[in-house]
Amino acid sequence: MGVTQLFIGPMAKSHRMFTLAALCLYNAIIPTAWQLPSLLTWGLLIISLGSVITIIRRLQHIAKGMVA
């Protein structure tokens, strides 16, 4: 489509991977009795919502590039 790679948005790949890695490390290191059971669920929800925002921003940027 003639548009270069875009790394814009609140949940680009590096942000998603950091968030997921931090959540997994938390679950691996913290004893089960101390863990918050819904933390992983909330983290995945944040990743999902951030990804949707990132997709919208990138599509808007692509659309501006196609019009110009």
Task: Catalogue the unreliable spans.
Answer: none
Which secondary-structure class do the elements indicate? mainly alpha
Question: How are helices and strands ordered from N to C?
Answer: HH
Largest sheet: none
Number of domains: 1
Please bin the fraction of helical residues: 55-70%
Number of helices: 2
Q: Compute the CA-based radius of gyration.
A: 16 Å
- Report how far the terminal alpha carbons are from each other: 13 Å
Shape: elongated
Strands, count:
0
How would you sum up this structure, described in words?
The chain is 68% helix and 0% strand. Helix 1 (13-29) runs antiparallel to helix 2 (39-67). It has one domain (13-67). It has 2 helices and no strands. It is mostly helical and 68 residues long. The longest helix has 29 residues, at 39-67.
